[in-house]
Amino acid sequence: MFHDRKEAAILLAEQLNPYQGQHPLVLAIPRGAVPMAKIIADTLKGDMDVVLVRKLRAPDNPEFAIGSIDETGWTYLAEYAHQVVSNPAYIEQEKTSQLEVMHERRNSYTPIRPPLDPQGRIVIIVDDGLATGSTMIAALHAVRAKHPQKLICAVPVAPPDTLAKVTPYADEIVCLEAPELFYSVGQFYQSFPQVSDEEVITLLSKNDK
């Protein structure tokens, strides 16, 4: 159990300490991981930015991911997706909807600059925890296409089967806890408030100065 995202980020930064001095690029999956990525980037003396990916939501349960999509439109579908979704048109509609959200977020999060370039850099992708792993897989795929030197997935908590699914997409996995009994990421935090778009924008604007 972590007290909050700040504590989880400090503990992750300790595990990632070998990369201090190598100017890593720490990418957060918005929105929850953005405050964490800021702490980790500051500790490691690296740069912080966001990698925009979105989960594709199940029709009757928007909290349940049937897959994910990145800014380019590349899509990952979980092996159970077509069991959950009987209408293929739903998936196309959901992809379009999530691409629009990412477009709006990119315009508001980093309106005056392009995303930081991962090419040739040690890149650490951070989330506040993994459930199905879908969004992390999309994030790793999106960054891999930009040719980083090394690609690391860093999370406080994830179930073992999800870590096994994500592992092929990363060069290294840093995960503090991998409990077998896993219902949601939030169950492993004493305090787990929503992170607002305004907080994300503030952190990114501070980072740009």
TrEMBL record:
<keyword id="KW-0808">Transferase</keyword>
<dbReference type="InterPro" id="IPR000836">
    <property type="entry name" value="PRTase_dom"/>
</dbReference>
<dbReference type="InterPro" id="IPR029057">
    <property type="entry name" value="PRTase-like"/>
</dbReference>
<feature type="domain" description="Phosphoribosyltransferase">
    <location>
        <begin position="11"/>
        <end position="180"/>
    </location>
</feature>
<protein>
    <submittedName>
        <fullName>Phosphoribosyl transferase</fullName>
    </submittedName>
</protein>
<dbReference type="GO" id="GO:0016757">
    <property type="term" value="F:glycosyltransferase activity"/>
</dbReference>
<dbReference type="Pfam" id="PF00156">
    <property type="entry name" value="Pribosyltran"/>
</dbReference>
<keyword id="KW-0328">Glycosyltransferase</keyword>
